[in-house]
Specification:
alpha+beta; nine-stranded antiparallel beta sheet
Length: 231
């Protein structure tokens, strides 16, 4: 490593150490700051061409381990939506008001195999909406005859994070202002052997949802915060 590079690295480390104390003791949750998120009211039961399908009898299997989810998150919202053509989308939102330490968002690529699913394909990409794009991860999962394509993203605060480094940086920035980092797992899935069609429907579903909610709610859900958009 060049001497200049070493000097820069040392400067960054020293700077980080000097301010770490300020971020080490965050005390205010999102709710206490007036920025809490109520999933039940934040997500409409009807938007675009989608309407919530009332649960009747046995619900669609949720691949997340319930007791682990309950420990990690302060709110869980699970709904099934259907459009005019009868296509069904399963929406699962998990919100945690404290994402420090062990209370970290649990990624579906860990949850699904834990429930016996096989992961056939995983890729990162962009989910396009009329208001902007969202960084997402897409997976194809299989359990017996059940083929379930999944699209999801994670947030810390109101920022979508893809990597552990991005997550740490988002937590650090919140900590600098005394804020306890909260986080959200936003997951969309459908039972569909045609993964291309499924991911296209996921994009349509998410886009219409983001258009239907106010800009403040959209940002908290990890959607594009287009300052010129209505709401």
């Amino acid at each position: 490593m060049k001497p200049t590079s070493i000097a820069v690295l040392l400067a960054v480390v020293m700077c980080g150490a000097s301010v770490a104390g300020f971020a080490a003791r965050p005390t205010a949750t999102a709710a206490e700051r007036g920025a809490g998120l109520d999933l039940e009211t934040a997500v409409p039961v009807r938007f675009g061409e989608w309407i919530e399908l009332p649960q009747q009898g046995t619900q669609v299997v949720n691949p997340q381990v319930q007791k682990f989810v309950d420990k990690m998150y302060s709110q869980i919202l699970s709904r099934t939506y259907v459009n005019r053509s009868g296509y069904r989308i399963m929406l699962s939102l998990a919100y945690g008001d404290d994402q420090r330490g062990g209370l970290q968002a649990h990624r579906p690529e860990v949850c699904y195999p834990a429930q016996g699913f096989r992961l056939d394909h995983i890729e990162d990409g962009m989910l396009a909406t009329s208001l902007g794009s969202i960084d997402v991860r897409r997976m194809q999962t299989v359990l017996g005859e059940r083929v379930e394509p999944v699209t999801y993203w994670l947030t810390v605060g109101d920022q979508v994070v893809k990597t552990q480094f991005q997550k740490r940086m988002a937590e650090f920035k919140l900590g600098l202002t005394g804020q306890i980092p909260d986080g959200l797992l936003f997951r969309i899935s459908s039972i569909d052997r045609d993964s291309g069609r499924a991911f296209a429907m996921h994009e349509k579903f998410a886009g219409e949802m983001m258009e239907a909610v106010p800009a403040k709610t959209r940002k908290r859900l990890g959607g594009p915060a287009n300052p010129g958009a209505a709401g």
